[in-house]
Amino acid sequence: MTGVISLLPEHVLIPPSTGAEGLSRYLAGGGYAPVPEPDRLLDLIGAAGLRGRGGAGFPAAVKLRAVRDAPGPHVVVANGEEGEPGSVKDRWLLRHRPHAVLDGLRLAAAVTRAGRGCVYLSDDPAEQAVRRALAERPSDLPVDVVRTEHTYVAGEETAVVRRIDGGPALPTAKPPRPFESGVGGAPTLVANVETLARIALIHARPDATDLVAGAQLVTLSGAGDAALVEVPAGTHLKVLADLRGYGRAEAVLLGGLFGGLYGEGWTDLPLDHDQMRAAGGALGCGALYFTGPRDCPLAVAVEAVSYLAAQSARQCGVCVSGTGALADTLAAVARGEAGDDAVGKLRRWSEQLPGRGACGLLDAAARIAGTLLTHFPDRIDTHHRPGCPACAGAAPEDGRRFTVPVP
Ligand code: SF4
Question: Over the Cα atoms of the chain, what is R_g?
């Protein structure tokens, strides 16, 4: 079961009562206020320090400015396709707060001078909520709804553009990036739906811009109940884990599957892109998986990398062979059947493979392998012989262990 919790001193994106927010409630909270002078809004977003919530944590104002400054007609896209199996925040937002997302899209269009918007998603209830909200919103920005399949790579920004243009939802080589040449060749802002909702609330709540921009939606999961939580910037993982009884976890999988495995010391990690990166991990989309008492970090790594290998779009040779080799070698280590050179190979691949695919999937797989070696050398030693009960059943490619139901 997935709960919904706010740890903020006041409600921001998680309202006091859940259920889809209709137009009247959204308007009562200051939504759809007249569009301000675009440069002033851009300055407000920049001053608040808002960072994108799709995973990379790029400053939102810098991305908006890049699209605005590119020549030509512009397009804005609300990206609601969350491919990380352990994340539910984007689908929850589209289902429960569609007006905040659409208002953010309207404001992003004003800032970038875009004449056309698009909501990109794969979730049926989210699509219904968005279509209802589109029908009643007081905005004349033309907005299309584009469906995609639910895969790990479908939300990657070049895959988003390719799908909206009628192709498959698969990443393309960069450059060009969408801000240079995106939908139909136009400079395009592809923004995560949480980023857009926070832009809308920064505009509606000029008294609370720091709180709105710093807060974060996080999905917690593990052996017990899951939760979608909105927390202040910099909240430590221990605080989050204690909400669901995960405080004694041996390991945490960070950032969905993107941020790697973290062992001893995870309790002191804060939800902060820069500090997580400095610690060798990544915050990604803010999804955290905590191991349970009967888990083995190696089994978690095997399942995560097997899932990623199965999700490879199979476009880049290095990704197909790299994720496959990582998954097979990790599985052999977990079964106690690996050769003496297995750890050396995993170390070499974890250092050499990142950055060589067209998207971040290969990087995610390599980071899981690398962080496993860094944080759990003793656990790898104990797998020299078969017999780890947790690893005996490891390797499903369907990502079931990490999949969280949307609350
Ligand atoms: S890195 Fe892998 S998943 Fe990403 S585009 Fe290349 S083949 Fe596809």
Answer: 21
